[in-house]
Specification:
Helix content: 40-55%
Distance between the termini: 65 Å
Order of helices and strands: HEEEHHHHHHEEEHHEEH
Largest sheet: 8 strands, mixed
Number of helices: 10
CATH topology of the largest domain: Trna Endonuclease, Chain: A, domain 1
CATH architecture of the largest domain: 3-Layer(aba) Sandwich
Shape: globular
CATH class of the largest domain: Alpha Beta
Number of domains: 2
Strand content: 15-25%
């Protein structure tokens, strides 16, 4: 009983600590209160773009092509076209963004929300954001009313969730995982980095916290690489390994923020892949050995970047001071 209370208290500390971070749409801001009660804001750099620019700057999804969305009158048709897009998709004229622009400017009475998706990749990104938003609302609904845990979610989405969301929920139930949170902010005050963990679950069997990176799309290329990662990382740049590095970095920031509580909860890292509607969710569990190897390299990388940014800020301060003089 004492150990169970300790786990609950550790999770409560992690959950409450995440409230200090605000997502601005352009990045993250850390709210701090000084001795006089004033709120100070510390900008945090997002980790996703930094990792992409540093470790896999040349990666391009293989086999993804532009799709002319102008000829689709129904979102379901667009969804099918995205999933069935092939590398050889016909003439340049049929794939040109000019035709899509003409469609958007043609004065549709109610242009669908997805109509600005010029390419299959952009439309897939929009679909991925919607999957994440629905799972965030689902997790919020579970916490809202324990007597009817999905009532709020059903009210917001009367037509039901997306198929990928249904697949993720069914996967959680099959694994006997309980969804605790979605998009949990984590940060490092010393390194000035911040990000969000897509999903946080609790395994009722092993009694361990589950940290999850959720990826949608990449139906045929999730494990397909185009080059090795940079900076000596012993991995390829496939979307799977990108997700593993992102998740390990999130875990590292969480450990920097709450070292004792992370030790109590012993998080397990899992990458979930929901490729397309109608397919099951695939789980890729990250071994403790790989997490330790990546964490050591990432720690050096983030510390080096933090020092370089601090030196740059100091140089800027000295420059501004000398300009005033």
């Amino acid at each position: 009983m004492r150990k169970r209370l300790s786990m609950a208290r550790s999770w409560a500390r992690i959950r409450d600590g995440s409230k200090a971070v605000v997502h601005t749409g352009q990045g993250y801001m850390l709210q701090e209160q000084d001795a006089l009660g004033r709120i100070n804001y510390v900008p945090l750099r997002g980790i996703t773009r930094f990792l992409r620019d540093t470790l896999w700057p040349t990666y391009r999804p293989p086999g993804r092509v532009a799709t002319d969305v102008g000829r689709f009158a129904d979102p379901a048709e667009l969804e099918a076209a995205i999933d069935n897009a092939e590398s050889d998709a016909g003439s340049a004229e049929s794939n040109s963004s000019a035709r899509v622009n003409n469609y958007l400017k043609s004065g549709l009475p109610e242009a669908p929300r997805w109509a600005n998706a010029y390419t299959a990749r952009q439309a897939g990104m929009m679909r991925g954001r919607e999957v994440h938003e629905q799972l965030r609302d689902y997790a919020r609904s579970l916490r809202q009313d324990r007597s009817r845990p999905t009532a709020m979610f059903e009210q917001v989405y009367p037509d039901g969730p997306l198929p990928q969301v249904v697949a993720v929920i069914k996967f959680f139930q099959a694994q006997q995982w309980r969804l605790l949170w979605a998009e949990l902010p984590v940060f490092s005050r010393d390194w000035r980095f911040g990000t969000e963990i897509d999903l946080v679950g609790w395994c009722t069997i092993t009694r361990r916290l589950i940290l999850i990176e959720l990826k949608t799309g990449y139906p045929d290329s999730f494990q397909q690489a185009t080059a090795p990662m940079k900076r000596g990382f012993p991995l390829s740049d496939s979307p799977l390994y990108q997700a593993i590095v992102q998740l390990t970095t999130s875990y590292l920031l969480l450990e920097q923020q709450h070292p004792r509580h992370v030790q109590v909860l012993r998080p397990k890292l899992v990458v979930l892949h929901a490729p397309r509607a109608g397919e099951p969710v695939y789980a890729h569990k990250v071994s403790s050995r790989l997490v330790a190897q990546l964490a050591a390299r990432l720690c050096k990388l983030l510390r080096k970047e933090a020092i370089a940014r601090q030196e740059s800020r100091q140089r800027d301060k000295r420059r501004r001071r000398s300009d005033r003089l």
